Amino acid sequence: MRLDKFLKVSRLIKRRTLAKEVADQGRIQINGIQAKASSNVKVGDELTIRFGQKVVTAKVVHLKETTRKDEAADMYTIISEKRVNED
Questions:
Q1: Which band of pLDDT confidence, cut at 50, 70 and 90, is reported for residue 86?
Q2: Beta strands in 8-53 (DSSP E)
Q3: Edge-to-edge, what's the strand order for the sheet holding 54-60?
Q4: Are 35 and 42 in contact (CB under 8 A)?
Q5: Most Cβ neighbours (<10 Å): which of 4, 21, 70, 83?
Q6: 80, containing H or E segment
Q7: Membrane-spanning regions, if any (predicted)?
Q8: Is the predicted pLDDT of residue 87 greater than 60, yes or no?
Q9: What is the CATH number of the domain that holds 68?
Q10: pLDDT digits (tens, 9 = 90+) for 35-84
Q11: What residues make up the domain containing 64?
């Protein structure tokens, strides 16, 4: 599954266009390697996403083409969430 679609379906990022922009800015890594919006995501991959002042690391648990809002959080597990101070 494409990275931008996974982020939207799992609701880690609300819109696919926003997920594409974040990936194009180099703020997403898959298993430690910088990822593009078109990068492939597999079960077991570790995503690191930089949201402004916060860095979230999540592990992919399930891949689904569509999901309901209450099931979206089952697609990933949050490994860590850190605040980053940019000076």
A1: low
A2: 28-30, 33-34, 46-51
A3: 33-34, 28-30, 46-51, 54-60, 76-83
A4: no
A5: 4
A6: strand 76-83
A7: none
A8: no
A9: 3.10.290.10
A10: 999 999 999 999 999 988 999 999 999 898 888 888 888 889 999 999 98
A11: 3-83
